[in-house]
Write a structure and sequence with these properties.
two-stranded antiparallel sheet; Rossmann fold; four-stranded parallel sheet
């Protein structure tokens, strides 16, 4: 595994995945792209000192199914966060807009329903070349960014819940 580049925009709390268990749901459509994004997410988790055995991988046939499979992961009590990986390319019709809207709203609903972070690692590109550039090419790897967001959000939620617990009894 090659060393991860440090991005100055990465939240500091994204650098500590110890004790976190993450589900990665990855679309099988545009498999080359999604596999590269999933590798990036997995590498980012391990680089943040997370245990590779603390990642649960779940395939989804396509981007639309990320919601159903992502919900199944998020509902597991042993999962702290979900990273959704997919790729939707603009086509000759407007299907991509409807698909992306449905997926983004569905993933948001999962987070709201479960109280767990669901990171959006779904590329919405015009061309396959743009997707490749964002899946480990010249524009980086958005799977890494999605995992960083999942780790950082998980830590933020843990801190809020710990502070809430500590404040019981009038110490606010």
């Amino acid at each position: 595994m090659k060393p991860m580049k440090t991005d100055p925009t990465t939240p500091q709390c994204a650098n500590d995945a110890r004790g976190i268990r993450v589900g990665i749901v990855s679309s099988q459509y545009h498999g080359e792209i999604c596999a590269a994004l999933t590798r990036g997410a997995t590498d980012a988790f391990v680089a943040a000192r997370g245990d590779a055995d603390s990642i649960v991988h779940a395939p989804a046939p396509g981007a639309f199914e990320l919601v159903a499979v992502g919900l199944a992961l998020a509902e597991r009590p042993d999962i702290d966060a979900v990273v959704a990986i997919g790729c939707v390319l603009t086509g000759e019709t407007s299907h991509d807009r409807y698909l992306c809207d449905a997926v983004s709203h569905g993933l948001t609903e999962i987070s709201l329903r479960t109280g767990k972070p669901v990171a959006f690692g779904v590329l919405t590109c015009t061309t396959i070349e743009q997707a490749r550039a964002r899946a480990g090419g010249s524009k980086g790897n958005k799977g890494i960014e999605a995992m960083h967001a999942a780790i950082a959000a998980t830590r933020a939620i843990q801190e809020i819940r710990a502070a809430s617990t500590a404040s019981i009894g009038g110490n606010r």
